[in-house]
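User: My advisor asked me to double-check a structure prediction for Nicotinamide riboside transporter PnuC before group meeting. I don't want to rely on an old file, so could you generate it fresh from this sequence?
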Amino acid sequence: MSALEIVAVIVSFLGIWLTAARRMLCWPINLLACALYFKLFLDVRLYADMVLQALFGIAILYGWIVWARGKEDSGAVMVEPLRPVPAALALAAGAIGAVTIGWGTSHYTDAALPWIDSALSSFSLVAQYWTARRHRASWLLWIAVDIVYVGMFVVKGLMLTAGLYAAMIVLAVLGYRSWRSAQQV
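Assistant: Sure, here is a fresh prediction for Nicotinamide riboside transporter PnuC from the sequence you gave:
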């Protein structure tokens, strides 16, 4: 456990909590969390997750813009339904990304856990995109991904980060419940 990991955990927890609460402040906080985890994942050779943080940075800027435009008159961020065909296409893209990234990192890097790291990174991008698009289903995918992340971080000895991801599972459940009650049908 390093000082970097401690700060990254605190900032990440705050960012996810603000996202679940549908607060615009989540975006700059989550951007800072990405930068901190980029460095941490570089240090422990989880390269797919390191690159994921850079891609999350781009997705965060996108989400910030989408959320700013998707507010109700009260200022609350609107939740949008996710239709079956776009959901299936996004999950297929996640699977293709997992295989592509996994193959590349297993053949061309010294990645510690190339296949699982790549799959989690790819499906995290799908979940992040769904979050940016304000789909409550994003929380269900985050729950699934975070469960596996907990195990990966335990294996890598990142116990504090594993604890963060366990807490993020709880936050995702709360986020799903909150967004379900707010979703416009």
